[in-house]
Structures are given as structure tokens and as C-alpha cells.
Description:
The complex is a heterodimer.
Chain A: E1 10-19, E2 22-32, E3 37-41, H1 48-55, E4 63-68, E5 71-73, H2 78-83, E6 86-89, H3 101-106, H4 115-132, H5 148-161, E7 166-170, H6 178-193, E8 197-202, H7 205-211, E9 214-219, E10 222-228, H8 234-242, E11 260-270, E12 276-286, E13 289-294, H9 301-308, E14 316-321, E15 324-327, H10 334-339, E16 342-345, H11 349-353, H12 360-363, H13 382-395, H14 412-424, E17 430-434, H15 442-457, E18 461-465, H16 469-475, E19 478-483, E20 486-492, H17 498-505
Parallel strand pairs in A: 3-8, 3-9, 6-7, 7-8, 13-18, 13-19, 16-17, 17-18
Antiparallel strand pairs in A: 1-2, 1-4, 4-5, 9-10, 11-12, 11-14, 14-15, 19-20
Helix pairs in contact in A: 8-17, 14-15
Chain B: H1 8-33, H2 38-50, H3 53-78, H4 86-104, H5 110-139, H6 143-166, H7 188-192, H8 207-224, H9 226-236, H10 238-243, H11 248-264, H12 266-275, H13 286-296, H14 301-324, H15 330-346, H16 352-364
Helix pairs in contact in B: 1-2, 1-15, 2-3, 2-14, 3-8, 3-11, 3-13, 3-14, 4-5, 4-6, 4-11, 4-12, 4-13, 5-6, 5-11, 8-9, 9-11, 13-14, 13-15, 14-15
Amino acid sequence: xxxKTMPHAIELRDISKRFGAVQAxxxxxxxxxxGTIHGIIGENGAGKSTLMSIIYxxxxxxxxxxxxxxxxxxxxxxxxxINAGIGMVHQHFMLVENFxxxxxxxxxxxxxxxxxGGVAAARVELQRLAxxxxxxxxxxxxxxxxxxxxxxxVEILKALYRGARxxxxxxxxxxxxxxxxxxxxxxxxxxxDQGVTVLLITHKLREIxxxxxxxxxxxxxxxxxxxxxxxxxxxxLAELMVGKKVRLTVNKDEAKPSDVLLSAHHLSxxxxxxxxxxxxxxxxxxxxxxxxxxxxxxxxxxxxxxxxSGITPMDEGEIHFAGQVISAKAPKNAAxxxxxxxxxxxxxxxxMGLVTGFEAYEAAILGYHxxxxxxxxxxxxxxxxxxxxxxxxxxxxVRPPNPHLKTANFSGGNQQKIVIARxxxxxxxxxxxxxxxxxxxxxxxxNIHEQIVKLRDAGKAILLVSVELDEIMALSDRxxxxxxxxxxxxxxxxxxxxxxxxxxxxxxxxxxxxGVSV
Amino acid sequence: MSQAKVPAWVNIALIPILxxxxxxxxxxxxxLAIGENPIEAAGYLIYGALGYNEGIGYTxxxxxxxxxxxxxxxxxxxxxxxxxxxxxxxxxxxxxxxxICLSLDHTMPFYVxxxxxxxxxxxxxxxxxxxxxxxxxxRGSHIVITTIMFNxxxxxxxxxxxxxxxxxxxxxxxxxxxxxxxAWLPYLHELFSPLGIDIGDSPLNLxxxxxLLCCVFxxxxxxxxxxxxxxxxxxxxxxxxxxxxxxxxxxxxxAMLISGGLAGFVGLNEIMGVxxxxxxxxxxxxxxxxIAVALMGRNHPIGIILAAILFGALYQxxxxxxxEIPTITPEIVVVIQGLVIxxxxxxxxxFKDRIEGFFIRRAVA
Lengths: 518, 365
């Protein structure tokens, strides 16, 4: 590197940020040389977005500071960041859809109360920028009529128009087709040649390898490694991303899988934008086994859980369960799936598994509120609800054992116990369980794992989704890996190690599947 | 999360009372600005509303309407729906009451007419809530917009029906004939006088008792039935509702049916209780005031009763005030009512954060 003697374009010193009990960023140090493309990679929830929000002034760091071009800057708002020459392209575009490109670029930098003069000046400047960075665009086009790739280009132009010399892109390829993504990387190269410093946030290894000069890896809020892209490999990065932790041990005997209780055939599901989130997923779930679904979060696991549990309808495929065939034409909703003895511990207990404004005893019957146990002729049987809640709180060691406490006021681990107890105590045949120990303390983790194994030994089928590789490896009898909405591999838990799984999770285990554009 | 450390009484009592006091303070400045003594004015207002039996009767009579519409708003709100259409639902509910009374008052005794009128009010009000509910649940039209529009449609419909079909023959006034007395809801002072209790001559009638029963009904429905459980789940966390397999469209539609039916009961009080004929514009803004009542009453029946009485007192005391101090015109009284609505409804959150912050800091320290 020739410019090592120059001050870094941006330097972070010991940035820490805490949200309540969650340490989102811990003592982050980062040096980005000017005129380079710097990748920041990590799993979802590793703290990348928080870090970028701190740089761009959405959050203020608890400790630490930021230097731009060797000078300490105080960034308290996005305006401060813009003044310091930092621009950001968000994952979800911040564009006014029915404005033209020119109007969007000018927005917030109109230069006076009357538009006329500003518009003319902006038009000239925008055309100059577009030419200089070869970012072809029709400045009078209406943004909503542009394809997504071009909308992103508008975002980049917007940042450059405001004088950005440091450009942050947050998961820029999430919404792009592979061709558009390749185009984006060519643009980033061109920007780099013009001396712009690019920070690229992503969890996709391919992009890092294809476009960056340096890469930093984040894991659980910490910056765990810095590498020169030339001197690293996908394998190494995958391992760093996932991390090698003290291996959890769960006491369990050999699984004795028997009948297939549930089978899915070519399940596909589209989101509201028409993007395929689940691609032809097939799997079998046997009594007496735990099937683990590994994968970087956001690769279709949530969609799989939602489709299997009946929360979202599938678009193609079939589920065979409890003697029934469930398809797009003959769907079943979540209540009907429950009636067939399927229980579901959702990945996000706050958003889905609980109503945090409810008292614990009310949240403890969510989904089973129609059961005769909890209902009298007209009114609900409050006493039965409370008695049962008290019993379960004792059995599962929920603290504090107060059924009248608002659900929001329990700790994460205790909330999770309320959810798991609710689902497990129904004695289901199939249990879908997502991120069972996310945000749960160590002691509770063991307890939860024991319960899951106990259920397996009782001949139930368990589908476990977790982004914690340790957890997948410790609990599962069989492991399926998902990537980009599809199943990319299956292996026996005995043959699984972190490296293999990490590679499969990045879809880098199989060169043929990887595409040609690297 | 921050709710954890804020004592309940702060939200339930302190903040509403502060908001009302502030509204009165600003009202006082308004009265000062037109050259009158605010203390004197406050005296008239309070005496007029609560100082003697007739005044109390009138206050409770106004409160009756506000309890119905306040409950209507709160039931919908518990399901996450903003029912702005209480006005129209009340209006059409009154039509239901009027039609029952007009068609049966010559043939049927009171104890037949009264329950049918209750059903008529509920069914007509519910029907007027059903269409926006259907559009929201199955077609995705926003309920705020549709309920507002349905207020206008209700208003036009009533003009058409009364002028063209229900108007008394040979009269110019746009209202129906007066019902026979067996289709009148008895006044409470009539019910009390045989017992030797004089509660003063006022339009307060049996509908007030019905309003209180409705409060009990709503309380039981929302907090003690399965349907209420589903409604509250939907209102606080729609994702969890889908997870729980709750048929959200169905719950939405039922919430609006019940809400519309409750609003329709305004017709009992106004048409059957006081006016004894079907007339134009008897809803007089109660549907909208119900939004403020529900907000101030924290969507709980007890809170709604208290808020409805406060607003009823403002209506009654305000009328008295305008009578006693002629320079304070009825419009100024509307300003005072508006200020109370503004501070307790629209600006409800003005102090909320700061006051809660104060208690959170105190709890931490």
C-alpha cells in the first residue's frame, strides 16, 4: 500500500455502544486507508449496522471517538457526518419515490427558498458528477420508475452531491440482481480510482472477495480480525465470522429416529415484493430426532418456520403432516396447525411469541386461548389460567414467579421460558423452535437444551433453527444448511464441524454452485 | 420497557389531571383576554354543572351520549382500529330507534318497544360500522378515511329520509311526528319521584342506566372473554395475533360491529329519551367528542365514565356560564371545551415523556 503514510480516511477508536443489556459494539477500532474499498463482514446481529449508524450520526457512541483524515470529529447527527464528508447508502433507500432524480439529489440541499436557481445549478453539478464517476442516469426520470439498481445509483449520487469522500454502503446487494450487483462493484472501483473511500457492509463473502482491498470481521459486537483481502480466503473469513467458541455439550443419547411425522415437498414462498424467499425446500422430520437448520440469518429460515407453522401461506409445494396434505390450494392457518399438534417457538419472541403488554398469565396461553381448559361458558376461566401459569412458572423456574407481571418486564431468558413452556407443555408431536436461546443466559440455556432433548427422547420430532452453530451442533442429530432460501446441504451431525458448516453457510463448499462473476 | 419504573398512578391520574389543569389555565387566559374574571367564570361553570340537582342531571344526560361514543371508540381502539365514524354510527343508530318507535308506538306497549329499540339502535349502528370494517379487513381501505366518509354519507342519508319519507305531513320542520308516550324512555326524575326522592327536572333518562350497563359489558367483553383476548392481542401485536392463528379480519369486523352498535345507542338517549321524534343533527358532535373521552379515559370503562362526566359537565356548565356572563358567548364555551380536548387528547404526549422521565430517573436514583 502506497498511502500508508497518509492519514487514514476514517479511523474509529474504541467505539462502544450499549442498548440496555445488549452490548452492540465493544471497543471497536478500525482504520480505513484513503482511496480503498474496505469490507466489514459479520453475521446479522454482529453489530455492523449499529457501527455504521454511529459513524453516520444516528446513534452516539457511549465511548470512543471518530477521526476523519486524521482529525477528530464530533458526529452527533447525519448533518455532522455529511459535513465531515461521509455519505451513506442505506439498505432501504431513502428516496422520495415520486420525485425526479434531480429533485431527490437536491433534497435537503436546495440552496435557497426558491427552487429555480438551485435546480439549474444542481443539474449542471449532477451531470458533472455523473460523468466524472461514469454513473449514467437520466436526471429527469421519476425515481419509482427506475429499476432498483438505478435507484441505488441515485443514492450514491446523492451522497457524492453532498461532497462525500467516504461512502458507506449497508448491505447494498440485498435488493439487487447478480448483474446489478456486478455493475455496482464496477462503480465502486471507479469511485475508488477517483479517490473515494468506500466502506462496504455485507454478510456475503463473495462480495468481499470480489471487490474489497481490506476486510474487517465483526462478531457479537466485537471487531475480531482485520485482513488484506488478497491474503485471506473465504474459508478463513467464514470461520472468523462464525467464531470458535467453547463447545457446548448436551448430554444426549444416540437418536432413534422412527416414522416420518412431517414432510415438506418443494416449498416456495414469495414476499410481498414478489421476491422468492423460500426456494423449493424439501425436508423430512422424523419422530425422535432433532433436525437442525443452520445458516446465516436471513437465508430463508424464518420463512421456512412461518410456512411450516401456517403463519404465512406457501406459494408452491406441499406439507404432509398428521395425515393431511397442506398446499397453496388447501392451506391451513396457525390455529389449524396447532390443532394438528404442531407447536412453534418463534424466533422473535417480542415480535411474535409474546404480547409484551400482556400479563404473563395471558401471554402464557397465546395461541391456545381457544382451549376449553381456559374457557368457561362465556367468560375466560381466569383461575384456571392463573393456576396453570403458577404451576409452570414453578416447574420451569421462571423468575420472578409472578403471573401478573407484565411480560415485557421479565428478562429475555424468562420470557423465553414462558414461551417454550407454553409450547412444550401442550405435548405436541412436532415442535418448531427458532433461536431457542437467543438472548438467554447460560444457566437457562442448559435448561432449555435439556428440555428439547427430553422432548426428542419422548418420540417427538423437533425442527431447530439457530444461527448459533454451537447450538446446532450440540443439539441436532441431522443438519440441513440453508443459503439464499434454498437447502444447500445436509449432513449427519457426527460429520459436522464448524469449518464445513461455515463453508456451507456461505455456499462456498461447492465451487460449481457459486456463479461465474467472482 | 421504560414503563417498568413509572408508577401506574402517574399515567392514570397525574398526567390527565395535569392536562386538564393546563387547559383550564389557558381557558382562564382567554376569559381574561375578553375582560372577564376567570375565577368568577369558573365558579359559574362548576356550579352550573355540579352545584344543584338539575345541573347534575343535565351533566349526566350529556355524559350518557359520551359514554356510548367513548366506549365505541375504545372497543375499536383495543383492536388497533381508529373509529372516527362514531358520529355517523350514532346518527344511523338513531334512525333504527326512530323507525322502531314510529312503527310500533300505536300498537305495542313500552316493554316490547324498548328492547326492540335497543336492538334497532345496535343493529343500525353496527351496520354502519360494518361497511368500513369490511373494506379494511378484506380490501385494505384505511378505516380512518372510510369512517370519516361514512359520517357524511350518514348525514346526507338522514336528510333525505327525514325530508322525503319521515317528515310529519303538513309541517315544515324536518322531523318526524312525536312518538306516543309508550315509546318514551322514562326520565329518571319520574322514576325517583314515587320513592319520594327529588332529583330535579332534567332530561336524564333510563338510557344513562343502560350506558352504565354497557360499561360493565365492555369491561367483561374486553378483559374476560376469549374474543376480548383476541382483540387485545390484535391491537397490541398483530404479528403475534397471526402467530396465534387469530382470524384478524374476522376480529376486525366484529370489533367495528360492536363499536358501531355502542355508538348507535346515542339514539336511545336522544331520540327515545329526550326528543321523542326523529330529527336532524341530534348527534351534535358526540361521536367526535367520544374520541377525546376514550383517549382521556385511557380506553377503560371507568376512565370513560369519568371523562364523559367531565365533558358532560363542560357542556352543561358552559351553557350556564354563557347564560350568566353574556360576554362569554357560547362560542367561547366551545373554545374552552376545545382546549380541554386539545390538551387531554391531541397534546396528551406533551408532558408524558418528561413526567415519565422524571419518575424513571427518580426510580434509578
